[in-house]
Amino acid sequence: MKKTARSFILTATIAALLVSCSSNREQAAQVSKDTPGHSVNNQVHPPDPVIPSPPATSINTETPKDDKAKEPPMKEPVQEPAKEPSKEPVKTAPAQTATSSVYGGSKESSKSDPGNRKELSWYYMKKKKGQVPDFPHETKSFTKDMKALWVGTGKKVYLTIDTGGPLGDTATLVKSLKDNDAKANFFIAGYNVKKDPDFVRTLVADGHLVANHTMTHTDMNLQTDEQIRKEIQDYEKLYKEVTGKDIQPYFRFPYGKYNTHILKLVSDMGYSSVFWSTAMRDWEPRKNGAEDPYNDIMNNLHDGNIILMHQGSPENIEALDRIIKAVKKAGYEFALLTDIDPPK
C-alpha cells in the first residue's frame, strides 16, 4: 500500500514537470513572435539599438554684416515702401564720364550673359564733394548693346525728375525752371500723362525733355518680355497723341530695378536707359524740410551730375529755385540728356 502511494506521487510529479516544460517552450515562442527584433538563422535577436537624434541646430540665415560700416547704397526712391537693395562690396573705381564705358561695355566682347535675369537695383557710392561717385560693379559687364548712362561730362548738371507717384505742385515746379532758365528731363509714368496732359504739353513747349517711364510704373523684373514691350510702345503712342511729337529715346526703369536681359531688350528698342549719380530719400517727409534736398544735391555736386529728384516731394519743389541758383553759382549749367556725347 505504501509503495503504491509513492508510485502515484512520483508519477504526478513527473507529469507536472512535463507540463511546466511545455508551457515554457510556448512562452519562449510567443516572445520570439512579439519582439520587434530581426531574425537571423531562425534565432531571435534584440532590436537594433535606438540612437537618439542630435538636437536641432539653429541656422543663421541672415546675411553677415561687414566689419566696417559702409554708406548705404543710393537707390531710386519709390512712392511706396520697398526693399532696400543689397549692399555690394565697395570697390574704388576711376571717375567715369559719358564715354563708351558709360553707354555700355568698353570692350568688344563681354563675359556677361545677355539672357541674365538676375534682379539688380541701381545705386552709387558717394565720394568727396566734387568727385564722381563709384557705381555698381555690374556696370563693368555691360556690353555695347546694353545702352545706359549714369553720368555726363564737363560742367553740366542733368536734372531728371521722376513722376511715378503724385504730380505735386506743378505750377511752382514749372515757374522755378522758367524763372531760372533751367532745362530738366522728366520721366513721367503713363497714368500721370493721362491725368494731366496739359502739364506734359507745357513741359515740351518750354523745351524740357519728357521721356519714357512705362505706362504702369511696374517693377519690370516681374513682367514678361511681351509685357515690357507693350509698356514702352503704349507710352510712345500716348506721348504722340498728347504732344504731336515722337518721343526722345531715353528710358528709366521704375524703382531703378532691372536686369541685364531687360537692359538689352530696352536697348534693342532704340532706348538708352538713364540711371543717376545723385539721389535722395525724397519719397518720405524730410526731417529738415527744404534744407535737406538742397544739402543732398550741393554736397554731391560733380561734373556730369545726373540728379534724380521726385516731383511728388513738396520739399523738393520748395527747394528747387534755391538749388538751381546755387548750382549755377557753382559754375554748372543745366542740360538735357541729348547733350551727352554718344560713345565714339
What is the number of beta strands? 12
The shape is globular
- List SSEs in N-to-C order: HEEHEEEHEHHEHEEHEHEHE
CATH topology of the domain at 147-339: TIM Barrel
Number of helices: 9
Going by helix content, strand content and strand pairing, the class is alpha/beta
Main sheet properties: 5 strands, parallel
Strand content: 5-15%
Using only C-alpha atoms, the radius of gyration works out to 38 Å
According to CATH, the homologous superfamily of the domain at 147-339 is Glycoside hydrolase/deacetylase
Low-confidence stretches: 1-5, 17-112
Report the mean per-residue pLDDT as an integer. 77
Q: What CATH architecture label of the domain at 147-339 applies? A: Alpha-Beta Barrel
Helix content: 25-40%
Reading off the top of the CATH hierarchy, the class of the domain at 147-339 is best stated as Alpha Beta
Q: Determine the N-to-C terminus distance.
A: 138 Å
How would you describe this protein?
With 344 residues, the chain is of the alpha/beta class. The protein has a domain at 147-339: Glycoside hydrolase/deacetylase (TIM Barrel). Helices cover 33% and strands 12% of the residues. It has 9 helices and 12 strands. Strands 5, 6, 7, 11 and 12 form a 5-stranded parallel beta sheet that branches. Strands 4-10-8 form a 3-stranded parallel beta sheet. Helix 3 runs parallel beside helix 9 and helix 8 runs parallel beside helix 9. The relative contact order is 0.16. Residues 27-44, 94-103 have a biased composition (Polar residues). Residues 63-90, 108-117 have a biased composition (Basic and acidic residues). It holds the Pfam family Polysacc_deac_1.
